[in-house]
Amino acid sequence: TMQPGDHTPNYTSLTDVTHGKPLGTWEVMLQDHHEGYIDWSEFERNQSLIAVNAFGQKGGVKSGRGGRALLAGLLTCGRCGRRLGVVYSGRAPGHPYYRCERINQMLAKPRCMTFGASRIDPAIGREILRAVTPMAIEAAMEAERGHRDNLEQRHQMVKLDLQQARYEASLAERRYAACDPDNRLIAAQLEKSWEAALRRVEACEAALAQVRQIDLATPVPDFNDMATDLATAWRAPGVDMRCRQQLLRTLVTDIVADVDDEKREVILTIHWKGGQHSQLRISKPKSGEHGQSTPQAALAVMRSMATRWSDADIAATLNRMGMQTGQGKTWTARRVGALRTVHKIHGYRSAEKNGEWLTLTEAAQKLGVTAHRVRRLIKEGVLPTQQVVPDAPHQILATDLEKDEVTQFPRHRGPCRIKMENQKSLFPGI
Q1: Arithmetic mean of pLDDT over the chain
Q2: Is 247 within the bounds of a domain?
């Protein structure tokens, strides 16, 4: 016999001490023969969890235990049919890789495949979000209806309690009024009952007012936005990898992996719960390619600004836009210049110092005037300039400074006042 909490299984004979018989094949089993450490339902639940966690068994699926690999225990090799394991490579803590290892360990044969998790895991995450989005919107609407129903039920329960308390108070009042005043003991008891009923009415009214105040103060959650923003919830810092793995296992039964060596693609066949299948083809990184490359959006901004702006201005713009380098750092003029050299991006023309293009300060120095006068020339339309966007630094051709209208522009004494159209006087009566 075996009870929950026992550590010694029931064996068929004394000679066979290595293999226990399954629970359903026991000849004698006396439940609750003696008190165990746990009850029978918890024992069965523990046994089912142990069976699921037995990763090496045929047909078993490893439960989500955390780690840094999303698909640990779900990938099956499309060539040999064995489970893919997770290995970590590089400096600690290392980068996760999926590898068919058992054929090499047991049969000393070459491994079937090896591929990194840096591109596979995000692709599966996007596929999961795409699959659950319609159901999430429907679930959000159902949750919103349930939220409203709960509020209405709570109000209704408090109202019913108040109605019952008022009825009991009215009944106590009628009993007290119908009592003979000469019978003082009964009258005193009925008066106490009436006072208790009135106190209960006051308590129910206060509870109803409190419920209404809480409902007004508590904001109603926007379930629709919650459903449409599943990607943010999936990547939230408070959601750990174990939670993502468990969510994945509620939707996916198995994933069969294969590698197309000619096209350098990983082919994933997802077996969903319910019998549906879908396939993903994910490109493997090329030789020397890594996940710390500069984003293409940052390179596009750099190419558009390089011929007009300095490296410091480009770095400030990228930082204001929230873009980072491939290593997650902020931009500096030195990093922008180094990246321009690697990608052969032409620098901005006034920075080359060949005398063709000048900044506003350099133009003022060449004319021998102040920067304020150069701004006045630009504002009057005498000196043409180029700007990438409004309010960007001016780029001035050196040949434009030699024009007669620029050199012979009259000097203005006193403050510069420009008459604005449709401008009203501050003192119209004067």
Answers
A1: 78
A2: no
Give the model confidence (pLDDT) of 271-312 as tens digits.
988 788 899 999 887 766 666 677 788 888 888 777 767 788
What's the domain count of the chain? 4
Q: What CA dihedral angle connects 374, 375, 379 and 385, to 10 degrees? A: 70
Residues 309 and 380 in one domain: no
User: 174: domain range?
Assistant: 122-227
Q: What share of residues in the chain are helix, strand, coil (percent, to 5)?
A: 45, 10, 45
Task: Read off the pLDDT band of 420 (50, 70, 90).
Answer: low
End-to-end CA distance of the chain: 112
- The answer to whether 223 and 141 are in contact (CB under 8 A) is yes
Q: What is the mean pLDDT of residues 366-394?
A: 78
Instruction: Give long-range contacts, CB 8 A cutoff, 24+ apart: 361-368.
Output: 363/396, 363/398, 363/401, 366/398, 366/401, 367/401, 367/406, 367/407
| The two structure tokens encoding residue 202 | 């006051």
3-state secondary structure 131-175: HHHHHHHHHHHHHHHHHHHHHHHHHHHHHHHHHHHHHHHHHHHHH
Give the residue from 293, 289, 280 showing the smallest Cα distance to 120: 280
Alpha helices in 293-389 (DSSP H): 296-305, 311-320, 333-343, 360-367, 371-379
Half-sphere exposure of 284 (CA within 13 A, CB side): 20
- Residues 140 and 210 both lie in one domain: yes
Asked whether residue 374 falls in the same domain as residue 335, the answer is no
The predicted structure's pLDDT at residue 187: 79
| Residue 277 lies inside a defined structural domain of this protein | no
Query: Is the previous residue joined to 96 through a cis bond, with omega within 30 degrees of 0?
Result: no
Shared-domain flag, residues 143 and 200: yes
Cα separations in angstroms, 131 against 175, 222, 277: 66, 21, 12
Same domain, 214 and 149: yes
CA 223, 225, 230 angle in degrees (round to 5)? 100
Q: What band does 14 get if pLDDT is binned at 50, 70 and 90?
A: very low
CATH of the domain at 393: 1.10.1660.10
> Is 374 exposed, middle or buried, given 0-12, 13-18 or 19+ CB atoms closer than 10 A?
buried
Of the ranges 207-211, 255-259, 356-360, the best mean pLDDT one: 255-259
Q: Strand, helix or coil at 386?
A: strand
The model's pTM: 0.47
